[in-house]
Amino acid sequence: MIYEGQNLTVGLLDNGIAELVFDAAGSVNKFDRQTIDELDKATQAIASDPDVKGVVVRSVKSAFIVGADITEFTAMFEQPEEEILEWVARTSQVFDRFEDLAVPTIAAINGFALGGGCEMALACDLRVADTTAAIGLPEVKLGLMPGFGGTVRLPRLIGSDNALEWMTTGKDRKGQQALDEGAIDALVAPEKLVDAALSMVNDAIAGRLDWLARRTTKKAPLKLNSNEAMMSFSTAQAFVAAKAGKHYPAPHMMVETVKNAAGLDRDGALALENQGFVKLAKTDAAKAQVGIFLADQLVKGKGKKLSKSATKTVTTNAVLGAGIMGGGISYQSAVKGLPVIMKDINQKALDLGLSEAAKILNKGMQLGKVDADKMASTLNSITPTLEYSAIKDVDMVIEAVVENPKVKSSVLKETEQHVGNETILCSNTSTISINQLAESLERPELFCGMHFFNPVHRMPLVEIIRGEKTSDDTIATVVATTLKMGKTPIVVNDCPGFLVNRVLFPYFAGFSKLVLDGADFTAVDKVMEKQFGWPMGPAYLLDVVGMDTADHAASVMADGIPERMQKIANDPVTLLFKNDRLGKKNGKGFYNFSKDKRGKPTKDAAEEAYALIKPQQSDEQTFTSEEIIARLMIPMANEAIRCLEEGIVASAEEADMALIYGLGFPPFRGGIFRYIETMGLANFVELADKYAHLGPIYQITDGVRKMAADGKSYFA
């Protein structure tokens, strides 16, 4: 044994080939401080051993190396820039020293080689991967750029155009694509990987592969003349500007770094990469996106842990109420291999539900994501029925009928009489109290909320709502089933609107008040989309939700939380609803929706909406972007804080992920609590106090005021 550490070892084979083997104590290999230190020591041990003729780098786990240990980033990025720069420069030099070994080095890649794992492979002279491999540099998803030489070695290996597309999108490459683009040198079956790597290193040792020429290319300036460089980087800049916009600095920094380093050798280019990494590490976007990653890990970990505690396994679902929502839920169950019976009292509704599933599948076929076999198996897994007798043996029922407490209670009560005594009942309600619905049931312990978001096949979140009498095993089983359906479950406690809609309606109320105070709804949408970063501004979102749905839900929220959410007099939403301007569903709301001559959808601010709203408005006035953002986001933030303080949601991380997955909260802001923390709790309190005169939704809790005074954090 040449070297033995906790996470990697180096052994010497009889023919002089050293095997550098990654085998961390956990389930995956990753580059934490310990592993990087061990890699440096292993490199020194290899360099000082005269018997070593070549090196094979491999993993004994199902993945090569999944990247850096992101849990170390949060504390590290709080350090001064000089200290972060010193760390990243020192770390990247570890990879340099490995690259500079006097013998050929081969990476044998299996499974994921991402981030630092990809950079380890790039530091080798040659790369062979098996057919399970997925190789990439996803740092952009964390608001960062590669820091261990990725921006230097990859462009010199596969060309700047390909490399920038890899890095600015963060998408990994399967083995064949990586081979086609030149990132790896061979692709083999998994069982042949080690033999192929050993054969390759022997060829390099024997001079049959010119490994030194490959290494020289990686360490030299990019081979681009001035015209090629201008075309390459201007194209990349335009692509990034169009795709990422101004809120995500990482892809812009990558293009600038590769561009400025094009004429430099490895050491000069790495110095620029180090500097760019540090600048990004200090941005709010990186802090937010790293926070999202860690919050997502927390949410997924809780879901898996809960699902393992379930004592039941759901093998057949039923969905009550076909239509668009029921069809979407049925599709989601069937496409993930969980057969579903779709029941309604109306054949036309069943036909609509089936056509909804078929429409989603057809779109998938057009995009090349679904083949004919998948479409057939999915549709064959949905059984439409008009009879209760068809669902008597199912394990779980998801009720998705009209959002009316009397109708839902009646349907749930009737359903309970037609299913087994162990069958779990769920209600896909967006606002109605689970405790209220449970009152009609004989077995409330087997009942909970299961709130899907529309469109079901696209939205990752499912809110699992625990009622007062819901059993732990019911929650665990529903969480397990949600995971099986390919969705992310977040468990919340019962209250009007639960978590997502409870924080959404104060935001809508803030919008309505702002419009009544004289704001132009199109100006508000523009600020909230272009500057704050929402995918849709509030007026457009209300049009998509539907004015009838929004007005009804607002009434439910007003009944449930009258002290803060009483309906607003002359609310523009209600005005539009009463005038049959329902939004996108009937082509007229705040905006008019139609199609141009080419059949492309259009959206135009509706003069009719202005005419309805104007008599109720104060004098028209212009609000600054800061005022618009504050008047909409303070109510949302306040309600999120209340949900956390009341125990509706268990953690700030889960609240953040719920809003990102359920509402499309701007990822570069990291979620509602990360947004508050980035602003600073003391600054948030000061800002909210400035608007407190506007009403209860602007008035903060004593809890957040005390946290601000004590200098505490929601992520401590």
Structure notes:
- Keywords: Fatty acid metabolism, Isomerase, Lipid degradation, Lipid metabolism, Lyase, Multifunctional enzyme, NAD, Oxidoreductase.
- This is enoyl-CoA hydratase.
- The protein is α/β, with parallel strands linked by helices and 716 residues long.
- The chain has three domains: 3-282, 2-enoyl-CoA Hydratase, Chain A, domain 1; 313-495, Rossmann fold (3-Layer(aba) Sandwich); 501-647 and 680-710, N-(1-d-carboxylethyl)-l-norvaline Dehydrogenase, domain 2, CATH 1.10.1040.50.
- It contains 31 helices and 20 strands.
- The strands form four sheets. It has an eight-stranded mixed beta sheet, sandwiched between helices.
- β3 (17-22), α1 (33-47) and β4 (54-59) form a beta-alpha-beta unit.
- α3 packs antiparallel against α12 (266-281).
- The radius of gyration is 28 Å and the shape is globular.
- The mean pLDDT is 95.
